[in-house]
Amino acid sequence: MLTRLASTSHEELYRVDDPETGLRGFIALHSTRLGPAAGGLRMRVYDGDAAAIDDVLNLSRGMSYKNAAAGLPLGGGKAVIMGDPARDKTPALLRAMGRAIEALQGRYWTAEDMGMAPDDMAEIARETRFVAGLDHGQHASGDPSPITAKGVFNAMRAGAAEVFGSDDLRSRHVAVQGLGHVGWHLCRLLHEAGAHLSVADMNAGRVANAVSEFGACAVAPEQIHATEADIFAPCAVGGILNARTIPEIRARLVVGAANNQLAMPEDGDALHARGILYLPDYVANGGGIINVAAEILRITDSGPWVAERLDAMQATMTQILNRAKGEGLSPAPIADRMIEDQLLQVAV
Ligand code: NAD
């Protein structure tokens, strides 16, 4: 079921195949330097194996950086399943993925990501011990999305202080792309803080709900990045900050939950050149993995533990923004450099 593939950039890369259940996917362990590789399981349609491998390699590398930025004793890993979650996801397929994860003997811990829900994690847990984000069980941490949203919200306040001179989000106009698990919670926090919302999602029902619940303004998905707003919050797919979209962005601050928002590393510089402050995604969206880590690390009183680490993550973001300002650079390369230095200091 697991076939090891060669990789020069990652510690381990596997193809996962189970013809009986239709499972096709990949698992990548980028680094176990800080601890077991941890990172979510994503299910989506890919344009072939190469696209899925690219995604799992990028995402798992991102997890090494994210876990380090969140101050966790965890390395970086990720898994992807190729398929449409609405059509192809079955209990048997999820259990097959669970068996593949179990075969890695704890070197990789999985959790929820795009296309997955807590119930799916429970199905996977029938076959493996190395799954977190469960609703039930002694250390169950549940859906990480509300904590992810809280971390993004905190980061947004730090960014607002930098760009607008105040971290108060009241009356700020935020364009949110994606009203899924994280986007929805983020909208609620922003609404409660008095922000105005423009929203987009491929799912018209979610948009209609946001319009009625938060008084949000509906925007076409292909236009949301270009909304005349103060802040753009990508909470859907990666690669949204690219050569085509960056010239059209009208917000002065970009911060959201989506992983790998920059299509290319240079896109961070392109945003900086346009005077747009981009907050590194893997620092802003680390709340979810902090919540999941409490389960992996078997923390008993997890509430205060999680809150403490969210505060530390916020302090790290502020430190990155200060350094970026001092050096006149985009926060993206500054964050990378800080984390790479941190990883290098750990003995192999
Ligand atoms: P989700 O699957 O629950 O929601 C994604 C939403 O985006 C869906 O409603 C989908 O219809 C919408 N969408 C997809 N393509 C779109 C497009 N082009 N325009 C507008 N909407 C679009 O996923 P989620 O858990 O909310 O995660 C969102 C992003 O945040 C992902 O990139 C994920 O990797 C990242 N993330 C999530 C967590 C977490 O705790 N769930 C933690 C860290 C990072």
Q: Outline the low-pLDDT stretches.
A: none
End-to-end Cα distance: 30 Å
The strand count comes to 13
CATH homolog superfamily of the largest domain: NAD(P)-binding Rossmann-like Domain
Helix amount:
40-55%
Task: Examine the secondary-structure arrangement and name the CATH architecture of the largest domain.
Answer: 3-Layer(aba) Sandwich
**What structural class do you assign from the helix and strand content?**
alpha/beta
Task: Describe it.
NAD(+) binds at residues 178-183. One of its GO terms (biological process) is amino acid metabolic process. Belongs to the Glu/Leu/Phe/Val dehydrogenases family. InterPro entries: Aminoacid_DH-like_N_sf (IPR046346), Glu/Leu/Phe/Val/Trp_DH (IPR006095), Glu/Leu/Phe/Val/Trp_DH_C (IPR006096), Glu/Leu/Phe/Val/Trp_DH_dimer (IPR006097), Glu/Leu/Phe/Val_DH_AS (IPR033524), Glu/Phe/Leu/Val/Trp_DH_bac/arc (IPR016211), NAD(P)-bd_dom_sf (IPR036291). There is one protein chain. 43% of the residues lie in helices and 16% in strands. With 348 residues, the protein is α/β, with parallel strands linked by helices. Strands 1, 2, 3, 4, 5, 6 and 7 form a seven-stranded mixed β-sheet that branches. The protein has a six-stranded parallel β-sheet with strand order 10-9-8-11-12-13, with helices on both faces. Strand 1 (2-5) and strand 2 (12-18) form a beta hairpin. It is globular. The structure holds nicotinamide-adenine-dinucleotide. Nicotinamide-adenine-dinucleotide (NAD) binds at residues 112-115, 144-145, 148, 177-183, 200-203, 206, 221, 235-238, 257-259, 285, 288.
